[in-house]
């Protein structure tokens, strides 16, 4: 397919405005708040389920199933999003994704038995898998390179806002009430995002040149967008010429390297404990026998710390780059995981740790602060940067299916390792985090300040200058 661009006479010129890009991304990220509410649900819900908060009994084994079943929904949600992204567009895919969020919260609020609650949690996984596949693509395609870093991290930050909100009100109101409150997030998204523009990349893929021009004018708030439109057209045309079949993810060098980079980043992220430790953070604090602060308050403090860290990281990620922050995050989290492991080892062998009862809260606070600086935000950001437009939706669909399975596997692994003592999972996760530094240093490419086309050329092994003309050798 050839994309035809007809130049038009432009009378007004000027510098692009960035606030419309912020508006579009933040509107889309209101759905991320709902995703954060869903992801953070287990933190306050697990102790409530074990204390019979609902009007039916739930065993410890059933609680474990409820926790691990949500990520398995990625197996449906991710390929579903990958299938419709290139058919109905990025915008309408995101709008459709509000439906499973609304459905899941209604089922949670009205559940009468464990199977019904499991269905609700599985639907949240479908929603999350679809969302994490779709939003990075939309954000990567509507943002200029100069703001893609800070705006790309807004997905992580707004997800953390949802996680923090759930930790706050989920700890103090019944599960059914929390579900009703959580319905506000997808409803807010529907009201605001319906007015946002479609991705100009997608519109050019469909040969809708005039619509793409209008979208760029809205996003840049300037009349003369012809240079950027021509550049995007060339990028899309080249990437479409490389086809868009699923197997192209694995047979084209640049696609495979980008895909394997994301797979590796997600593996390091999850095996460093980022999700499972949040699921069970209140249980961990209870096992630590802290006397100063309750487990509920401790989890709120950790979530708040993580949010603050992600915010400040978003301000510097385009200055320091993705790789340095990820490596620092891996090393820092490994040290803190080993400290937590050491505390529980002393406790396991009967040592008096009452003098050091402040260590679990301090170590976990610092852990969530450090992971938010790199392990959390970098994989989410690079998901929208590393893949060619022609295979992006398909590759992310497969990758997030893998992510869902990985989260479930790590959840099961955590339960199994705890049988050998609460210290064991912390040591294992610490070693995995250290391994991540080697992977990032030797394999991951830096994407700071580069256009999506320049990133593709670097993945091919070509050197590109940082310019609109994309001179590559």
UniProtKB/TrEMBL annotation:
Keywords: Cell membrane, Glycoprotein, Membrane, Transmembrane, Transmembrane helix. It holds the Pfam family Sugar_tr. It is found in: Cell membrane. It is a multi-pass membrane protein. GO terms for molecular function: transmembrane transporter activity. GO terms for cellular component: plasma membrane. Residues 20-448 form the Major facilitator superfamily (MFS) profile domain. The chain crosses the membrane at residues 21-43, 63-85, 92-108, 175-196, 259-281, 293-313, 325-346, 358-378, 399-418, 424-444. SUPFAM superfamilies: MFS general substrate transporter. Belongs to the major facilitator superfamily. Sugar transporter (TC 2.A.1.1) family. Trehalose transporter subfamily. This is Major facilitator superfamily (MFS) profile domain-containing protein.
């Amino acid at each position: 397919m050839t994309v035809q661009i007809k130049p038009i006479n432009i009378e007004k010129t000027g510098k692009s405005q960035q606030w419309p890009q912020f508006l579009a991304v933040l509107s889309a990220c209101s759905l991320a708040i709902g995703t954060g509410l869903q992801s953070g649900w287990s933190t306050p819900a697990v102790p409530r389920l074990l204390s019979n908060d609902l009007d039916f009994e739930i065993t410890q084994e059933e609680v474990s199933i409820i926790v691990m079943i949500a990520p398995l929904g990625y197996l449906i949600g991710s390929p579903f999003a990958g299938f419709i992204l290139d058919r109905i567009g990025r915008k309408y895919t995101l709008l459709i994704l509000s439906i499973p969020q609304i459905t899941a919260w209604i089922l949670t609020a009205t559940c009468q038995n464990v199977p019904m609650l499991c269905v609700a949690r599985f639907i949240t996984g479908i929603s999350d898998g679809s969302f994490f596949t779709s939003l990075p693509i939309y954000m990567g395609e509507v943002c200029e390179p100069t703001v893609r870093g800070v705006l790309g991290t807004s997905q992580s930050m707004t997800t953390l806002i949802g996680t923090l909100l759930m930790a706050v009100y989920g700890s103090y109101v019944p599960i059914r009430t929390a579900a009703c409150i959580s319905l506000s997030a997808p409803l807010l998204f529907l009201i605001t995002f319906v007015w946002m523009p479609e991705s100009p990349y997608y519109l050019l893929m469909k040969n809708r040149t005039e619509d793409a021009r209008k979208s760029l004018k809205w996003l840049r708030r300037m009349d003369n967008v012809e240079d950027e439109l021509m550049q995007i057209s060339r990028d899309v045309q080249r990437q479409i010429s490389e086809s868009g079949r699923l197997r192209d993810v694995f047979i084209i060098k640049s696609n495979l390297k980008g895909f394997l980079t994301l797979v590796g980043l997600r593996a390091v992220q999850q095996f460093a404990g980022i999700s499972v430790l949040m699921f069970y953070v209140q249980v961990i604090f209870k096992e630590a026998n802290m006397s100063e602060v309750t487990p509920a308050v401790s989890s709120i403090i950790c979530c708040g710390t993580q949010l603050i860290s992600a915010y400040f990281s978003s301000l510097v990620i385009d200055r320091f780059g993705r790789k340095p922050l990820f490596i620092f995050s891996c090393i820092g989290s490994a040290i803190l995981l080993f400290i937590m492991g050491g505390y529980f080892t002393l406790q396991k062998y009967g040592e008096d740790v009452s003098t050091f009862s402040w260590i679990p809260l301090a170590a976990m606070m610092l852990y969530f602060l450090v992971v938010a600086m790199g392990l959390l935000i970098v994989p989410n950001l690079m998901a929208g940067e590393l893949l060619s437009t022609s295979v992006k939706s398909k590759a992310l669909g497969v990758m997030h299916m893998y992510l869902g399975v990985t989260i479930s596997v790590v959840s099961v692994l955590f339960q199994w390792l705890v049988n050998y003592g609460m210290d064991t999972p912390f040591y294992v996760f610490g070693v995995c985090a250290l391994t991540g530094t080697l992977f990032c240093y030797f394999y991951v490419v830096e994407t700071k300040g580069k256009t999506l086309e320049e990133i593709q050329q670097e993945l091919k092994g070509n050197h590109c200058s940082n310019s609109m003309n994309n001179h590559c050798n």
